[in-house]
Automatic annotation (TrEMBL):
Entry-linked Pfam families: Glyco_trans_1_4, Glyco_trans_4_4
GO molecular function: glycosyltransferase activity
Keyword Transmembrane annotated: yes
Keyword Ribonucleoprotein belongs to the record: no
Keywords of this entry: Membrane, Transferase, Transmembrane, Transmembrane helix
Source species, domain of life: Bacteria
InterPro entries per UniProt: Glyco_trans_4-like_N
Gene3D superfamilies (UniProt xref): Glycogen Phosphorylase B (3.40.50.2000)
Membrane-traversing stretches: 83-102
The protein's name: Glycosyltransferase involved in cell wall bisynthesis
Domain Glycosyltransferase subfamily 4-like N-terminal: 18-185
Length: 387
């Protein structure tokens, strides 16, 4: 049995795409005869506060589903203040250094990036000719931060670019969740070993169900992180509610602002349901006509994991983020697209939706496409063959 360590910022009981991705990866590798351990902070995402039951500890180690989970101290914060976010990343990096000094590290390590500084710390301290470092790149930082407006192209940005290049240079293998990510890495290091490794979900998909709505209004649902990148607050302000009702599930930085907007603008037909478990979400999504997957701006390299998860559920999708995600929606006929950041076109697309594509027959077709084309185990086997 081969020992393997996964270093990540996110892991259950935290929720979200990153947590789910690493959880399924660890479970999958364990089933294929790897002795997997996970190194992660004390759970705090997305609330920015360590969860109850984990507070007041510097480290907690547990065995969960035959996997050893080491949870380390972090100064937790989801503040918009860049300094506080930096302190949070540095605090976990210091905890990692402490762990590296006092513990034996396996010869195969998978490192999640971003966060860029956490990946840098791991690569810097673990690089060795005797160790294989696999960098799992889910977003391109600092480029994504620049496109979101969170960073400016100044001296600090150049430092982050150097850190990014350092990580790529010293990784033995790059896993990229999109072709754009792999193209970016190749533009920096042409012959770097890489593998397209999408964020495919792994769960038993219930058969699609759907009852034709009697209401004249189209029920659109968003479920997920209410963060800056998703732009749900702006979306709430820009949608035309004459023909739709907008339902929201999730939590994050924009949550309070969204709740305030709903409370003080009762003419907006928005219903906020709070945060629910992933399992419950899978059961409630089927009551809606279509799910929307937005990004505030087009982010190079980004392909939201919701595309693959909702396809597995047979949900028709309205994609509003541009880039490679748009290509996936069109190629596999999973729904509709509107140009990123063009809210006028978005409202036009919504008003002209072909409602025959909301029917149960099309949902079954979407699910079959997902089961055939977005196969978690097939992808995992490709990874195992090269590690």
């Amino acid at each position: 049995m081969k020992d393997l360590l996964i270093i990540t910022n996110y892991y259950p009981p935290e929720t979200g795409a990153a947590s789910n991705r690493i959880f399924h990866l660890s479970q999958g590798l364990q089933k294929y005869n790897f002795n997997v351990s996970v190194l992660t902070p004390l759970p705090n995402y997305p609330k920015g506060r360590v969860f109850e039951g984990y507070r007041g500890r510097f480290k907690q180690t547990s065995i969960e589903n035959d996997i050893t989970i080491h949870r380390l101290w972090i100064y937790a914060s989801n503040s918009k203040n860049k300094l506080l976010r930096l302190i949070a990343m540095l605090s976990y990096s210091l905890s990692l250094i402490w762990f590296f000094i006092w513990n034996k590290i396996p010869k195969t390590v998978i490192i999640q990036s971003p966060p860029l500084l956490v990946a840098f710390t791991s690569v810097l301290f673990l690089r060795s000719k005797k160790r294989k470092l696999i960098l799992n790149v889910s977003d391109l930082w600092p480029l994504a931060a620049l496109e979101l407006g969170a960073l400016k192209k100044n001296f600090g940005y150049k430092i982050l670019e150097k850190i990014e290049r350092f990580n790529y240079r010293h990784a033995d293998l790059i896993l990229g969740q999109s072709d754009e990510i792999l193209a970016h890495v190749s533009s920096i290091y042409k012959h770097k070993n890489s593998l397209l490794y999408r964020n495919y979900p792994y769960f038993k998909a219930p058969l699609p169900t759907y009852k034709t709505q009697t209401s004249d209004k189209l029920k659109i649902v968003y479920a997920g992180l209410l963060g800056i990148a998703q732009g749900i607050l702006k979306l709430c302000k820009e949608l035309d509610y004459s023909k739709i009702q907008f339902h929201i599930y999730g939590a994050g930085a924009e949550q309070l602002a969204i709740q305030y907007l709903i409370k003080n603008n009762t003419e907006l037909d928005i219903i906020y349901h709070g945060e629910v478990s992933r399992q419950k979400l899978h059961s409630v999504l089927t009551q809606y006509d279509v799910t929307i997957i937005p990004l505030l701006n087009r982010i190079y390299g980004s392909v939201p994991s919701k595309i693959f998860e909702y396809a597995r559920l047979g949900m028709p999708m309205l994609y509003f983020g541009g880039g490679e995600g748009e290509t996936v929606i069109n190629k596999y006929e999973l729904g509709w697209v509107a140009n990123a950041s063009d809210y006028t076109e978005l409202n036009t697309v919504i008003s002209n939706l072909d409602k025959t594509k909301l029917a149960l027959e099309n949902r079954i077709k979407i699910q079959k496409t997902a089961l055939n084309c977005f196969d978690f185990n097939k992808q995992l086997k490709q990874l195992i063959e090269i590690i």
